[in-house]
Specification:
The chain has about 450 residues and is an alpha+beta fold. The chain is about 40% helix and about 20% strand. The strands form 4 sheets. The chain has an 8-stranded mixed β-sheet with strand order 5-4-6-7-11-12-3-13. The chain has a 3-stranded antiparallel β-sheet with strand order 8-9-10. Strands 1-2 form a two-stranded antiparallel ribbon. The longest helix has 24 residues.
Length: about 450
């Protein structure tokens, strides 16, 4: 007997290289699907369990069809006034007032502080988060954090692909209400499943998430280790992607006691070599379908203060009230900022997503359907994207990866950071020109 939904998932998503590894297809598959790693990339495979793959494994996938206009109407009851940000009811910059929570986070500890507040005020009984090192020192895995201590163990960003939504397999049986923390594609899948009224998401009452620009496969960590003469990730006893003072640094502790480190902007040299294809195709940078989304406050005004500041977008009246309640109770240090100021902190990445993604989709044999698109993009901006395409193509070559692993580490990181700054300076005018004025149109389903 034909396995209809597995055949469609394989044909429309996996074989077209569109899978984002969000984990939903496996999480709602009733164990008919599993993940298999191939060079750092997690891809769904059919298990030997008898029976059909459930329809939700296909319908809940955010990779092939994920129409943001429809999802915005479902979640917020309206379309965004600004497609660069999605629906926004309030924009802020701030950090957790509790310094221990603030320091534990990747920037300002805001998501951790909100989860703790929701838990302590009994608005939730737990939160779906990622925890690094729970069972394997170098792996992140989804957990349900039910105490402040468990939430803080899930603080910090994770920069390797992790299929969070595999946890949906157990959520149907868990007590709620729950909060959920995920990346844009993972959140979009949760919203699609909520549309479908799938039982695995019925207890998710509050959704938060970080901004997401680019993401790497775990092979980036393996490459970093090889650059230091370490041939296996099994030598890792602890892994932190953003340890120490904001903006943080990669920190890997080994069994022999050595600690390998790289500044955040130096470690980013691995992005062109190990960036995921989903990073290139997803147009959602600010996590538009969350209740609250959070990013680093990249602005000289806040960077000079040190300590870690976050830009925070509240997307509903309820979310805005939660933030204001926390400010009134001195749980969050918050200042209101205009949305234009909040978006200016990430102009480069907004352009990479809101124009670059749609250019890159033109080059795909099969393109995702996000339900909207820019009405026009200048030839100069398309030329910039061709340059990036060539750069990423060279970075994906085995010889390029081998070469960078054999260059002195003290040279590679600083050199990449310098080249990044030069590139941003050269393309700033083209990439920023007209970005704020970009018009978008809602498209008919394909």
């Amino acid at each position: 007997m034909a396995d209809q939904w597995w055949d469609q998932l394989r044909r429309d998503v996996i074989d077209c290289n569109l899978c984002t590894q969000c984990g939903s297809c496996v999480g709602v598959s009733q164990q008919t699907l599993a993940f298999k790693e191939d060079h750092g990339i997690m891809l769904p495979i059919r298990t030997e369990k008898s029976g059909q793959v459930p329809e939700a494994s296909y319908r809940g996938c955010p990779a092939r069809v994920c129409r943001y206009p429809d999802l915005n109407r479902f979640v917020f009851g309206k379309l965004p006034r600004n497609w660069l940000s999605g629906v926004v009811e309030g924009s802020f910059v701030g950090h957790a007032a509790d310094e221990s929570v603030r320091r534990a986070g990747a920037s300002g500890g805001v998501i951790s502080a909100i989860l703790i507040h929701l838990l302590e005020t009994k608005q939730i009984v737990g939160a779906v988060c990622l925890q690094v090192g729970k069972t394997v020192p170098y792996r992140a895995e989804p957990v349900i954090a039910r105490t402040k201590e468990e939430i803080l163990r899930c603080a910090q960003s994770v920069y390797s692909v992790t299929p969070v939504n595999t946890i949906l397999e157990t959520l149907e049986k868990e007590e709620g209400p729950l909060a959920y923390v995920g990346l844009p594609d993972q959140v979009a899948s949760i919203r699609k499943l909520q549309q479908l009224k799938h039982p695995s998401v019925r207890n998710i009452a509050f959704i938060l998430g970080p901004y997401m620009g680019t993401q790497m496969t775990f092979d980036a960590i393996r490459s970093f280790l090889r650059s230091h003469g370490i041939l296996s990730e099994e030598e890792i006893t602890r892994l932190k992607y953003r340890a120490g003072e904001w903006p943080g640094h990669l920190e890997i502790t080994l069994k022999d006691g050595r600690v390998l480190t790289a500044e955040k902007f130096h470690y980013n040299y691995l992005i062109p070599f190990f960036m995921t294809t989903s990073s290139l195709q997803l147009p959602d940078f600010t996590n538009e379908l969350t209740d609250i989304s959070v990013g680093d406050a990249w602005s000289p005004k806040y960077e000079s203060r040190r300590g870690g500041y976050s830009v925070i977008l509240a997307r509903s009246a309820r979310a805005t009230q939660v933030l204001k309640d926390m400010r009134a109770q001195n749980l969050l240090t918050l200042e209101d900022v205009h949305l234009d100021e909040a978006l200016a902190m990430h102009g480069h990445m907004l352009d990479f997503k809101k124009r670059g993604s749609f250019i890159r989709m033109r080059w795909k044999p099969v393109a995702p359907d996000y339900g909207y698109r820019p009405t026009s993009i200048s030839p100069a901006r398309v030329f910039v994207e061709w340059c990036l395409r060539a750069f990423f193509a060279v970075g994906s070559l085995r010889i390029s990866r081998w070469t960078v692993e054999h260059l002195p580490m003290g040279l590679v990181g600083p050199a990449f950071n310098l080249l990044r700054k030069i590139w941003k300076g050269m393309t700033k005018t083209t990439k920023r020109k007209g970005l704020r004025e970009t018009e978008f149109e809602v498209c008919s389903p394909r």
